[in-house]
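Possible regression after last week's pipeline update?

I re-ran a chain I had predicted before the update to compare outputs. Posting the input and the new output here so someone can diff against the archived version. Not blocking, just want to make sure nothing changed silently.
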Amino acid sequence: MSEAQIVLTHSRESGIVAIASGEQYPWAHTALAESGFQRDDDGVWHLPADGTQTTVVDLVTCAKRHRASVHTRSRRFIGDAARDLARLLPGQWHASVEIYAHPAWQEDLVPWIWDSGELGRAVQSERIPYAAVLTDAAQGTTLLFVERPGRQLDYLVGAFSPEGLEEGYGDPHAPRSIVLPPIPGRAAQALTDRYLPAYEQAVHARQTAAIAAVLADIRSEHDTWQAMNASGRYSDATPLSAAALGASTELFLDHAWRRFLTVVDHAPTLLDRCRPANSPWPDDAAALSRLADAVIDAEALVDEIVHGGVPCQSRSAEHARGRPSRPGSPTAKRSCARPA
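New output (post-update):
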């Protein structure tokens, strides 16, 4: 295969569309531009309705001059397939196209794919030069929708790691991607009935595990600090000065606070899911309410610290959100700032 390729397919709305890929994809861009194609914001090339009468033969001739090969696909444009699917899903879903023209851009997907099935393996081992992203902003769900490698009709769909749980790659809690048929109605039903419930359950399990791990770490550090405080000595029996005790206390509070931010992020959702409409155990409901109030108070404190409100007794004011921040949109985090 040449170092620059142009894939031609058909869009219901735009007619013939083209996608460029390959390590030397700019050669393909040059051929498309010279042939009268125009590129949209998603990186897909279109022939304008009032443009020149460019034919596929003209494009092939021009592409040869720029060392690019041209290939046609019988599949319909993936953007059309994704938008048809999004319209049939419950809620407000948005579909967009992403182009991974250079193979290295596809590699950027690997850490963010939250999948234990075929999609995760395909992203790592198969060439996927383009895909569609389905986003439900209200629920915070982002899905990757690709043509199934080696198949003429089927699609694969799986999830990106949820907000706040970015360690998607290799996560044992990750849901398993599913195969979707090319018929939008059947695909939407499979996604709604099978995949989305499994995804929600996986998010719940992942959040529960994250909170349990954080609380276990805090408890372990607290036990160590408490034993040191009670004995007045380090673990090697060296006497602990008042200044050293104060420093160790501040360090413990700082570490505990930063870890507790995970609880603040995920506890509200878990508490909502655990709260039954009617319960024969009113004491349990009261305990859940107290926990929810405590998390709300912590959220308010985080907001005050982050926005320059009340000073904190530890250095947590500097590190209230001291984790690597996730870019503002799922698309931006995965394929931002690519050269033209």
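Follow-up from reviewer: compared with the archived run. The longest helix spans residues 184-231. Marking as no regression found.
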